Amino acid sequence: MANIKIAAIGFLVLSGIVIAGFYLQDNHRSPDQIILYGNIDIRQVELSFHDPEHIEQILVQEGERVKQGQLLAIQALEGFQYARDKAAANLEVQQHIVNKLLHGSRPQEIGKAGNDVNAAEAAVLLAKKELSRMQTLVEKKLTSAESVDKAKAKYDETRENLQALKEQYSLTAIGPRREDIQAAQAQLKADEAALQLAKKSWEDAHLYAPKEAVIQNRILEPGDMANAQTPVLTLALIDPVWARVYVAETDLGKLRPGMAAQIAGDSFPGKTYAGWVGYISPTAEFTPKTVETTELRTSLVYQLRVYACNPEDQLRLGMPVTVTIDTAQAPLNQPACPAKP
Q1: Which structural domain, as residue segments, surrounds residue 92?
Q2: Would 291 be classed as within a structural domain?
Q3: 3-state per-residue secondary structure call for 129-141
Q4: Does residue 213 share a domain with residue 157?
């Protein structure tokens, strides 16, 4: 019985030592330091084509690192090229129409209209003389009244034709109406916009990397039909990288954006990464279950985004990290990472 009591006492002492060790390990810090726990987070981009068409080429593989502006995939371009050529031809035709209206009537056209007027005037004089002659003959009973009527109708016809040709001459000399020119110019602008749209559709048939990133998923393959609703590639942006951590309300007032931070992970023991506080959530939430802290899981916390310097690309998406922030230091004016080697 004595041995059992001694063993029990020893077990309690040992347990106390272990618990105290864990407690001291988690709280062995300066009063000005806040230690937070979280995971590395990055942004992801899903790239898709704008117009439906088959994929011709995909130029990258999963895990490949790409630079900003690098060409990643191309659709079949034949249909887009036809649309662009057609729009360019329509624009050229309309440009000629506008130029014709702006230049007005050519001298030869005005001269022809004037000659038509002169010919019509001569026709009127001839018809008038013929009518007078028919009237003289009918008075002498040398022709019928019907001949006079025909001559009168011919005279009236030539006069109407002369008036029409005079008006035509006036319009030819003045040139196109202002409204016609404005309508043609408006159509020209519409054709220019149609050509730009066709060029944009052709350009949108090429996928480019928006930023430096890593190809995370290659969803479609050459030959697949791609459209705006179906992503082709998923990219993981490697800049910026940040640690998503949570701070208790009691420590919230000690933090300011720009404060320097040190980030450590389990993958590289003893190594820390420089960082700074970049974002503090304005709303509280319950501590996520994935965050391993020594605080109660039901405590309300605020999310922080601590940006990390990651020159060797060792911090990966989802990696658990520990963030230490020294609240005694003033926030940095312009926090930044050193240039990558």
Answers
A1: 84-200
A2: yes
A3: HHHHHHHHHHHCC
A4: no
pLDDT in tens, 156-191: 888 888 888 877 777 666 667 788 888 999 999 999
Q: What is the pTM of this model?
A: 0.62
Rounded Cα distance between 291 and 244, Å, is 10
Spacing of C-alpha 198 from chain mean position: 15
Domain assignment present for 312: yes
pLDDT tens sequence across 213-250: 999 999 999 999 999 999 999 998 887 788 999 888 88
Rounded to 5°, angle at Cα 106 from 100 and 110: 130
Cβ contact 6:293 at 8 Å: no
23 belongs to a structural domain: no
Phi/psi for 248 (5° steps) reads -70, 155
What phi, psi does 166 have (nearest 5°)? -65, -45
- Report the CATH number at residue 63: 2.40.50.100
- Alpha carbon distance 274, 270 (integer Å): 13
In a domain, 11, yes or no: no
What is the C-alpha separation between 197 and 184, in angstroms, rounded?
A: 20
